[in-house]
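User: Sequence recovery, please. Input:
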């Protein structure tokens, strides 16, 4: 290498080092600003070393507990919780690694997640029995919780529950898709540490497209990972929640958490199949909301689950997988109906 080549190489190296340190500084400053500007709206519940963020709104019984999707937070219920809080006590929370909650260093097995939910509700002194409302992956949590603690659950609403048949075990195609999701999640965590995700999300929320798509293409090889999976869902929520969601997904913790939940997904599906079959839901009112845009396999599994569990199945028109964002009115109506059924059952037992 001649002198000019050496100088150019060293100059490029120094530039890369400077950009890396600038990105780290930008990220650390952003994390401090996020903590100051967007404190948790609820409280942090210590469950034995780790803290889970929990927000309680409303009064009355039975309390309604909302369980979010695999990488979603309490904010995913922003269009539903306020309406239900006018009727009874409502509880939204963030699982470990997500939202305002601490990282949880135990494996993200479904049994661990259910144990943490139980501990949180006990510490928060939430009155039993409860109504459980769950979206997607959250349905796995709710079904196992109900199977382990049947006397604690008065009713269930499953919002487009994850079709576990195809995950137990996953096909070769699904396994490759899952492995890709895990890699992208960890890559997202790496990019977040250098402020790249923070910069791109800020541009997306300001209406920018070209630069975030370029970043997505470089990081994942396709646009949809960044714009559709994250920013696309953000825009369906109330604008006042956007800055908090941006702050969460600018934090490497959330990407690492998503990777850990995805890694445990096949095992979680197997756990539900083994320990929480549909028959365990019998004896309480259960409603299953299935998205209109589901594929035939997903629809068939929802129908089979409803039949085996003795549940009411409703096909929600005009909805994709995120029914609580596309059709919050349908979710609100389903929860109201379950509340009426559980209260009627309680009144009848009191009279007898």
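Assistant: Recovered sequence (352 residues):
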């Amino acid at each position: 290498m001649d002198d000019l080549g050496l100088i150019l190489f060293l100059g490029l190296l120094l530039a890369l080092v400077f950009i890396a340190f600038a990105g780290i500084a930008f990220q650390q400053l952003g994390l401090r600003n996020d903590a100051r500007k967007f404190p948790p709206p609820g409280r942090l519940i210590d469950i034995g070393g780790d803290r889970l963020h929990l927000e309680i709104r409303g009064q009355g019984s039975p309390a309604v507990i909302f369980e979010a999707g695999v990488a979603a937070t309490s904010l995913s219920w922003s269009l539903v919780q306020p309406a239900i809080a006018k009727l009874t006590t409502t509880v939204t929370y963030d699982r470990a690694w997500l939202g305002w909650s601490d990282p949880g260093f135990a494996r993200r097995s479904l049994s661990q997640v259910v144990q943490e939910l139980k501990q949180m509700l006990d510490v928060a002194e939430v009155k039993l029995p409860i109504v459980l409302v769950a979206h997607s992956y959250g349905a796995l949590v709710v079904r196992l919780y109900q199977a382990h603690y049947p006397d604690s659950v008065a009713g269930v609403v499953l919002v487009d529950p994850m079709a576990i048949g195809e995950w137990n075990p996953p096909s070769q195609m699904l396994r490759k898709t899952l492995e890709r999701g895990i890699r992208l999640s960890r890559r997202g965590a790496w990019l977040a540490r250098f402020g790249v995700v923070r910069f791109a999300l800020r541009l997306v929320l300001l209406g920018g497209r070209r630069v975030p798509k370029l970043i997505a293409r470089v990081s994942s090889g396709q646009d949809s990972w960044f714009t559709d999976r994250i920013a696309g869902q953000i825009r369906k929520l109330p604008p006042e929640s956007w800055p908090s969601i941006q702050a969460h997904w600018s934090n490497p913790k959330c990407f690492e958490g998503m990777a850990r939940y995805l890694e445990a997904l096949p095992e979680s599906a197997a756990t539900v199949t083994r320990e929480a079959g549909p028959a365990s839901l019998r004896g309480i009112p259960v409603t299953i909301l299935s998205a209109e845009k589901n594929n035939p396999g997903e629809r068939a599994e929802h129908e089979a689950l409803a039949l085996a569990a003795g549940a009411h199945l409703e096909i929600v028109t005009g909805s994709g997988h995120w029914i609580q964002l596309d059709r919050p009115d349908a979710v609100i109506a389903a929860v109201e109906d379950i509340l009426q059924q559980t209260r009627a059952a309680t009144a009848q037992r009191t009279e007898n």
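The mean pLDDT is 86.
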